[in-house]
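Side project, low priority. Logging it here so it doesn't get lost.
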Amino acid sequence: METYQVSEISEHMSFLEMMDVLNERLITEGKEPVAFDHDCREGICGSCSMYINGEPHGPDRGVTTCQLHMRKFKDGDTIHIEPWRASAFPVIKDLVVDRSAFDRIIQSGGYVSVNTSGNSQDANAIPIPKENADLAFDAATCIGCGACVAACKNSSAMLFVSAKVSQLALLPQGQIERKERVLNMVDQMDTEGFGNCSNTGACEIECPKGISLDNIARMNREFLSAKV
């Protein structure tokens, strides 16, 4: 752990802007800046993953690290920042972890074989019950940041995987691979070394998009049905 003192931080700054101020100072002093992931800074890409004061994405709720503002902290506070805590997310440098395990889970089954390019039908040509459409949309809001894994004492990825399984299982386009999908994605999740569900619900609480635990229940049903 390294200790840095940062001054001239506005309460309106985002957490990443505070990190930018620190790194600019370190670079000016000829020192190595702190490595951390970021991209869109709009709460969409999910790359700004930091473990802040013992919580994924910090003390606020329903936000990513880039949406966390410094007004959530007091002047003079000591802030502890760590990378995600999970063996399936090996640390690359400082606060940057390798989350390619999520990519491999998606590659194992998070796709549809329906032709959606060029010959795609009009959206209204395939009737979908409103409830299913809403549930699929809610699951699709998962940005794959990994906060669920970091929050879980077993480093489980079940909330992430269940969101991807639910999204496609609820839509007509996802029916062809439905059984293979859940079997392959759960198998890949286990292969990557993620733990089992702890049933504590910390993943839902810390998820910046509020992905529901109902998706895990749905994935379990999909898995058992596919096995039978």
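Brief comment: The chain is about 35% helix and 5% strand.
Revisit when time allows.
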